[in-house]
Structures are given as C-alpha cells and as structure tokens.
Amino acid sequence: FYLDPPYPGNECDYRHNMTGWAEHEELATRLSGLQGRWLLTLYDQPRVRELYTNYWQQPMVTTGGAPAPNGSRIILHELVIANYDPYDVTMLPLLSWTTSNQPMAGERIR
Q1: Tell me, what DSSP letter sits at residue 91?
Q2: Which of 41, 56, 63, 83 is least buried, going by the fewest C-beta atoms within 10 A?
Q3: DSSP E strands: which ranges in 1-110?
Q4: Which residues, listed in sequence order, are joined to residue 63 by a DSSP beta bridge?
Q5: Max intra-chain CA distance, the chain
Q6: What CA–CA distance (Å, rounded) separates 77 from 61?
Q7: Are 55 and 3 in contact (CB under 8 A)?
Q8: Exposed/middle/buried for 45, CB within 10 Å: 0-12, 13-18, 19+?
C-alpha cells in the first residue's frame, strides 16, 4: 500500500499533522513490523534516509503546489521508500494481472 504522511518540515498546518520526528520514528517502527508491501514518499532529507536506511530508496525531483501567477512551480526533492524492490521482475505476474484486466482506452465496458 502507499503512504503519503505529512512531510517533516513542510510547515503546513494540517489538523492531524505529524509535528515532530517522534511520530516519523513511530511510523518507521510500525512499518518495520508489517508483513505486506508498502511504499511511501517523504522529503529527501539525510534524517529520512537514515530512518529508512534498510529499505529500498529512490530520490526523485518533482514540482509541488499550485502554479504561481507567473506559472512557476516549486521544485521538490522527494524520496520514494519501499520495503521491496519495485523493479523486481518476480512481481511482473502481479502487475500484468492488474493491467490485463483493465479496459483499454475507448473500450466499451459491458
């Protein structure tokens, strides 16, 4: 499953925000005890990398937020973290099942 928790240092005032590192450490501890596959994204920070050092990590650059009046967007450096290797070819049968059972673009669903 996919997790998108409040990012550390995001300065957003979410009603139920994870306000400190203690909550992120608790999340990492709970995730370490799960048997299922999970993937999460957070800001790419040294402390985040250290917290999830035993897991697959992939940095990515993306844009965030609504465009400013001049059309510019904020560049974000994020980290994708998973307890499995998303590129593992042994998962392909699972992925092909989900895509092969989906209607094609323009296909009528009966």
Answers
A1: G
A2: 63
A3: 2-3, 39-43, 56-64, 74-82
A4: 75
A5: 51
A6: 5
A7: no
A8: middle
Cα–Cα distance between 76 and 65 in angstroms, integer? 10
pTM of the model: 0.71
Instruction: pLDDT band for 12, please (50, 70, 90 cuts).
Output: low
Which tens digit of pLDDT belongs to each residue from 13-72?
566 667 678 888 999 999 999 988 999 999 899 999 999 999 999 999 988 776 777 877
Measured from the Cβ of residue 48, the count of other Cβ atoms closer than 10 Å reads: 22
- Report residue 77 as tokens: 């450096």
Q: Is 38 exposed, middle or buried (0-12, 13-18, 19+ CB in 10 A)?
A: middle
Q: Are strands 39-43 and 74-82 parallel, antiparallel or unpaired?
A: antiparallel
Number of helices and strands (H, E) in the chain? Answer: 3, 4
C-alpha closest to that of 40 among 87, 80, 86: 80
Torsion of CA 78, 57, 26, 5, to 10 degrees: 30
